[in-house]
Protein 1
Amino acid sequence: MNASQAGKQKIQIVAKTKSEPKQGRKEAPNSFPSNVRSLIATGMLDGVPVKYVALSREELRGIIKGSGYLCGCQTCNYSKALNAYEFERHAGCKTKHPNNHIYFENGKTIYQIVQELRSTSETLLFDAIQTVTGSPINQKAFRIWKESFQAATRELQRIYGKEELNI
Ligand SMILES: [Zn+2]
């Protein structure tokens, strides 16, 4: 092989390596809720206590309910479910990412928890959900979600083929 051929081969290898993450490695299909809103909408976290924490302000307590937060401010007194932005406003704050300021009992934010669960392997996922907030979760909603998650996983398995998923 002469120098020019060797150079060409090198370029080809570089090009191949570069495109690898896009084409070579398929992302493992996963039907886990991909954001905070869809996680809360499963109802699994209904009844789990949270608090909005901001520097220089008193923290505001809340409880996850339906697709929002039962607000613990004096006016609402847990009688009203608010979305994250409204809940944040009742805490006297205004940011672009309220979910980064809403904490569970164990000191993790709701945003962190979604990220954590999304990177948990499917074999560990169901156990991880039970303990991830540091508070008991809603078992009835969990069972319903688990069944639909498993059905969705089987469907993905059917589409993508068994060897891709390894469950
Ligand atoms: Zn309120």
Protein 2
Amino acid sequence: MWQALFLLLIGAAWAQQQSLPTKQLKLWLTISARKRFLEVSWQHAPAREGDHVLLTAQNPTNFERRVLPRGTPLAAFHSEEGSGAGEDQPAYVPVHGYTSTPSSVIRAVPSSNHQYWVSNGGSVEVVAAIKPSLAAQWFTTGVPFDYALSRNVTTHTDCYGYWASYIDDQGRILSKTCLRAYPRWMRDLRPVIGELRLRDLFIPGTHDSGSYRPNFDPLLRENLVTKYALTQDDNIRGQLLHGARYLDIRVGYYRPSEEKFFIYHGITKQRPLQEVIDQVKDFVLETNEIVIFGLKEFPVGFGKGLGVHRLLVSYLREQFGDLLVHPSLSWHATMNDMWKLQQNVILAYDKEEVVQDFPQLLFGGVEQRWGNVQTWMRLERHLRFINDFDVSRFSSRPVVDMAELTPETWDVILDKHGGLRKMADNINWRISQLYRDELGNHANIVAADFIRGTTLMDTALELNRRKPV
Ligand SMILES: *[C@@H]1O[C@H](CO)[C@@H](O)[C@H](O)[C@H]1NC(C)=O
């Protein structure tokens, strides 16, 4: 009996290995939350002597070695700033060899050997160089990302801003990646995902999507409130352009002002709801993508009755009009079902009595699986737990894994965790790895804080491309 089980397990492991694609070198570019530094990570790297990972601000087609007067301006590394550094979680040993021990970076500084790489005959400057020492690593460079670049992204943007190339000692590019937008990823995958339901896909989402502040610079203006209230760096349009298709919308009602509905994070007022709605509308009109507009919590001003809810639903109806996916389609609807009708926005309303009142407008809420935990160890346990033996897999209603840490009230008052940005930097690289390598196949929606620090979108493309119809 035990032997049979043992053989079965071996067999399963073997079968899994057989089906894996060959271990191809891959690179990713992300943006840290705290200092908005570019991060570069890779997997399956040969990590030979002489290999480099080079960051450029334009698309490099080739690299050549030069001998030099002075070193290229190199990334400044400090353990405080590394996403992966996490000195407060030394107990975590990464399964797949992710590390960003700063000591391994210091060796990367080639300023003493008077040689450096240039690209495209010298016309493209290398802005950071890293010497890979392991097959899989995640580094925070000292190169700041300017969110003005992100604001220039359109529904036609692909690569922009920065490129990372893995080169060998001859300057041959073994793998390359870029910072990019994914404005039409669902439509682009239509031949593959058209007959699938939202529940069948892997979908990146944002947590507290409306908690961003235009033109905010955390290095200049951070205070206790912004540290614990803001959760994203891109506005809603930016989040959608970069691939998020689930929005976590927490609306409050603020009677005194002319504009009544606002996004709230807890009790702090963020953006006007109108701004968020306009950005969603414009985006889907331009792209025909499908967006889940998840209304949750109603933290302020709704009272006990349903009066304010009714006001809100009428307002949403008036705003979105024909763009709303009709609830009669239900969660069984395939992507094509929605596209055929040109209905793009699902109002998933997390209050059952209200959904029953408006069966022509509202879908029921999408379940958010929130761990309410303060450490990576506990978050990882939560995420693994909800994805193992997951009965929701048999339902067509989407579920959201809430992949972020939540500070407790006193932690906020005492600033124990250093803010949501620092907390995001501690876990986003780990979430990226966990969903990419392990949980992605069965997971549905994953919502993160400061989503630009994750590779969830790359994982979505990778996994959704291979979905069995
Ligand atoms: C954004 O686009 C405008 C107009 O094309 C341009 O002037 C500006 O330099 C761009 N900003 C960045 C940061 O590239």
